[in-house]
Amino acid sequence: MKKKYLGQKPVDIEVYDANGNKDLLSNYIKNKPLIISPIYTKCYSLCGLISGGLQTAINQLGTLGNDFNMLSFSFDSTDTKADLADYQLRWKMDGIHWKAISASGNNINVLMKSIGFEYDFVPSTNEYDHPSILVVLSPSGKITRFVYGINPSKNDIELAVLEAASERSRPGIVKGFYLRCFGFDPIKNI
Fold this sequence. Notes:
This protein is of the alpha/beta class.
């Protein structure tokens, strides 16, 4: 689905973490694959399912920090460092090998566009409509795979990391439905 982004490097933007530390996105790669999970911390439906599924797969795999690192990247410009800290705590991220980060508004848009992640704010529900997707980067920073769905398996993550480590790009892994997060108000029919 996102073939045109394979082999491309995401735009290198300044990001901040839960402690308010600023750095370039590229400095999180550290010579190993990096998995980026676009989320927003105030999402209480799909983003929590994605992070929960990731947590399960990562715990089963047992190689976080050794073979790859993870970033849960908030695309909500209103998320603060306190929101990121709460999200890290909620999902038991170690803050080293798996951490929550974000950026300023325009930098968020530029990064999300460069990885093919499409999202829209829906004012009537005060939520974002967004897909459930992981973006896997190689040690050189190139996009090598997209993993779709809310519950990636240990094998999905392992395969994506192995391919990224060897700088190979392949179309995404899709199991089940291609889900999007959005709210529906049956009274307003929106």
